[in-house]
Design goal:
Elements: E1 4-9, H1 14-26, E2 29-35, H2 41-44, E3 47-52, H3 58-67, E4 70-75, H4 81-86, H5 88-113, E5 117-124, H6 133-139, E6 141-142, H7 153-170, E7 184-191, E8 193-195, H8 208-218, E9 222-224, E10 231-236, H9 237-249, E11 259-261, E12 265-268, H10 269-279, E13 285-287, H11 291-298, E14 303-304, H12 307-313, H13 321-336
Parallel strand pairs: 1-2, 1-4, 2-3, 4-5, 5-7, 6-14, 7-11, 8-10, 9-13
Antiparallel strand pairs: 10-12
Helix pairs in contact: 1-9, 3-5, 5-7, 8-10
The chain binds 2-amino-3-ketobutyric acid.
Length: 337
């Protein structure tokens, strides 16, 4: 039997890496992978094919439409929050025009196949913007609809692309005489800061968490760019990958939202440091807040309300703080270095 085709953009990024390893080992789908950078050798064998190319290259995307019957798209490619601030217009092009191109590809695929195409999209806590630190410290778990005034280009892009996904799913070509049957099924997760044992993040602002652990494991000193009391929600990569796959598999009629918060645990940079020291007693970490990056993290919630995901599709993280470090991150990272 022919395997269903899954297109993964941003294949070489952190989530892409985890998702391709997981789906590749499962072996029940054909992974067509796309990234501007060459793909890590460890996951290349799972991709049939891997295409090195740009999501802004509409000719390339047109070729994909013609060559493959894509049933599910995991559109992971994006420029993260810190990197995006150095060149906001380029970030806008990649994050927004790139997403629009992929939604367009999904529409064409759906029309061509006469079938629904699922579109899985990772959004982020960066979509939030809590105006003051005082308020951040008061509000507790933030719901999907609250404080949506992001401080970063990346956050604006993520929030707008959530709207684009909703538009394409519910209203696209609403005035067209030949309005096509609605065949895009957009499903989105707002991720907290993600932590992988396999890859180190680049260009994000929640990166201080994973960086602290990876630096300690390599025996390198780390200068943390946020204050000790800075609290953010985090999640381990295996949970993030599982959440994407569970949302993908959930029956449409169980989903009351197109965009869901999810989280695993929240901790401060100081708590992070203490855990790192338990496992790497020689770790050298200093705290020297970077004004702008601190401001960005201060606008993101300490915690998010993921009750809708828990109720609608039974979301539950496997890794709480204890298991996250003891059973996943530390053993895997010690093996890596
Ligand atoms: C970033 O820091 O930009 C990302 C995110 C929170 O989406 N890790």
């Amino acid at each position: 039997m022919r395997k269903e085709v899954v297109l993964i953009t941003g294949a070489n990024g952190e989530i892409g890496h985890g998702l391709i390893s997981h789906l590749g080992q499962r072996g029940d789908v054909q992974i067509v992978a796309l990234d501007v950078s060459p793909l890590d050798e460890s996951i290349r064998g799972y991709c049939h094919p891997f295409i090195q190319g740009d999501i802004l290259d509409t000719m390339l995307l047109g070729r994909l439409v013609a060559e493959y019957e894509i049933r599910t798209i995991y559109h992971l490619a994006s420029i993260l929050s810190t990197k995006a601030e150095y060149n906001p217009e380029t970030a806008h092009r990649v994050n927004v025009e790139g997403t629009l191109n992929l939604l367009r590809l999904a529409v064409e695929q759906a029309a061509w196949q006469g079938k629904t195409v699922k579109f899985l999209y990772p959004s982020s806590i960066a979509a939030y913007g809590i105006p003051t630190l005082e308020l951040k410290n008061q509000v507790g778990k933030v719901k999907e609809e609250q404080y949506l005034e992001p401080f970063t280009m990346y956050g604006c892009n993520k929030l707008y692309c959530e709207h684009l996904g909703r538009y394409y799913t519910r209203h696209y070509r609403q005035l067209a005489a030949d309005k096509p049957r609605n065949n895009i099924d957009f499903r989105c997760l707002r991720f907290p800061g993600l932590i992988s044992a396999v890859t180190t993040p680049t260009g994000g602002t929640s990166d201080y968490g994973p960086e602290m652990v990876h630096y300690a494991a390599r025996g390198e000193a780390y200068n943390c760019f946020v204050r000790k009391d800075t609290r953010l929600p985090f999640m381990m990569m295996p949970d993030a990958v599982r959440s994407l796959l569970e949302l993908e598999a959930a029956p449409r009629d169980k989903l009351s939202k197109l965009v869901y918060n999810i989280t695993s645990f929240s901790l401060t940079a100081e708590e992070f440091h203490k855990i790192v020291l338990e496992h790497f007693p020689d770790a050298k970490v200093s705290f020297q807040p970077h004004l702008a990056r601190q401001g960005i993290v201060d606008s993101w919630p300490q915690d998010v309300d993921d009750s809708a995901a828990r109720y609608d599709w039974n979301w539950k993280p496997e890794y709480d703080i204890n298991r996250a470090f003891k059973e996943y991150l530390i053993p895997a990272i010690k093996e890596k270095y």
